[in-house]
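note to self — DONT lose this again. spent like an hour looking for the file last time. sequence + predicted structure for the chain T wanted, 378 res
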Amino acid sequence: MDMIPLSLPHFAGNEWKYVKDCLDTGWVSSAGAYVTQFEQMVADFAGVKYGIACVNGTSGLHLTMHMHDVKLGDRLLVPNITFIASANAASYTYADPIFVDVDPETWQMDLDLLESFLENDCENRDGLTYEKGTDHPIKAIMPVHVLGNMCNMPRMVEICDKYNILIIEDASESLGSYYNGKHSGGFGKMSVFSFNGNKIITTGGGGVIVTDDEAIAKRCKHLTTQAKADPNTYYHDEIGFNYRLVNILAAVGVAQMEQLPDFILKKKAMDAYYREHLNGVGDIRFQKVEKEVDPNCWLFTFSSEKQADILKKLQAEKVIARPFWMPMNQLPMFTQKQYVSKNDHSRKVHAESLSIPSSVNLEEAQMAEVVRIVRSCF
């Protein structure tokens, strides 16, 4: 059997047609109808009013920090298990991330730990929450919907309302995920989806920031286009960013969004297949999904103490698999940052978890081959 990749994009709709339209008309850069259409399609799907397209999810996260005046000395709460873009977004503004350990079963931010930290290690002054004995306000929290799963977002909203902490959702992996029927991205003041090549839909790169606040949406769009207030005189009224998504990539995104409901169904079928055929095999454990969560099943990941052996065996048989992201507190640039934890679940989750092939067009024969190799390790 040929190599089985981890998570490839799937182009089976109008991608060629829409890209050709961009080339035929010359609308390939940051202006064009597909950008606006893509923004609105993502916002509508997520049940949020406004969408602002940007070059990638990371730039979107950075812009949300900038928009809310997160700056030197400020603190941003981030789960310790995440792709590094979440922590980098704080660093770009010279703020300091505070890493919060994850729930050992769902792999999402541990809300009990979060609440305990805010109650016992922080204090309220002038309507803001500060680390005790410091002048460093906790400006924002960035929940990351890891693998398309979600923590108890209504509880997070309640906690953050109590402590006056802004919620910015890193919804990069969770397009198509819901908590009690409410789509990810709809809980924060601003939220960001990513469309990197391995996501459930892709534009090659790209991201979309969503918000229900019209004023925020207008300023956000303004800032992505270098804050150009008058295109004729090149008058810019503040420091902006060259973060606007280009039309030719948005055209791909529009075609992908048209197929998203079908993609989600295929991801769910894949997830069900792996869970059925790997259930009870050795010490394999699956990511727990609470009953309130309807995930998009983006990238199938499981845990086993034999992680290293399984990865080696899969690699030897030309199956691409990956370990989980290294916990943020273990990376050299973040080792001195604060880590809120009691049992360091992040270390164990990282040491034992691995992601296996999850492409939208993955065939049953390929899934069966992956299962055969994994089972052989036990």
